[in-house]
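Q: For a teaching handout, I want to show students what a protein-ligand complex looks like in token form. Below are the inputs, and the small molecule is S-adenosylmethionine. Please produce the holo structure.
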Amino acid sequence: MSQIDGLPPLREVIATHDLRAKKSLGQNFLLDLNLTAKIARSAGDIANADVLEVGPGPGGLTRGLLAEGARKVLAVEKDERCLPALQDIAGTYPGRLDIMQADALTVNPLDHLTPPIKVVANLPYNIGTELLIRWLTPDKWPPVWESLTLMFQREVAERITAQPGTKSYGRLAVLAQWRADTRIVMDLPPEAFTPAPKVRSAVVHMTALPAPRFEADADALSRVTAAAFGQRRKMLRASLKKLTPNIEDILKSVGIDPTTRAERLTIEEFCALARIL
Ligand code: SAM
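A: Here is the structure, written as tokens, with S-adenosylmethionine included.
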């Protein structure tokens, strides 16, 4: 029995329910409940919040979140093999864990929660970036969520938090930092997971800003960054030409050197371009 909740250790849960990890579902499980409690704490104060967890698997992080006092957790899991293990956790925390068996890409579980809402997840790597982009681009800002605390491959975490002029700086950094504060709060070696993935991982904590840092239309910013970073080695006058033929004049009008490359532009400059284009 574990000290934090009286439930069996996760290795035993996995053996009991025969939860052999499936690569196709991005299953790399965290079995150390001290570690999952630490991830839960890195989400800030969850005691008064509803938490969305995507991909609870055998429930290591779910147990961390509940033990750390989350008001309510909604866990969305695609793999039905995990449901009995999750039901056992729900029984230990009556009324605080809702389980939804679904593909997180086809449902909008945020609709089922009451603000303040925090999203905390050890995401399957194959859908992590897609879910992040969705959470960062809702119809209205501020979004319904207050913060996102998400595990990614270390390389993706660096792309989210990157500064201009660095190798990792790209579309993801601009879209994330335009409307959120982002920082890497934990680093995890492959051995922290079972089975161990090939690469290192990191937890990124993102807090939604009340309003975007600079004025711009979200679709326009998305298009400009897609064009600019789609050909990141080209000068902006070439990479952005497909958006408008007189791009050189437009760049000059907002004080940007047309021979600059995308990775040198600040978020403020991307927003200025989005407003004009
Ligand atoms: N949270 C658990 C942990 O930390 O040990 C498991 C994390 S594992 C990296 C990713 C989890 O996401 C797996 O349980 C997998 O079955 C689930 N998953 C994969 N694709 C999914 C999808 N489209 N929708 C919901 N869950 C998904």
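A: Two things your students might notice: Residues 164 and 265 are 6 Å apart (CA to CA). The mean pLDDT is 96.
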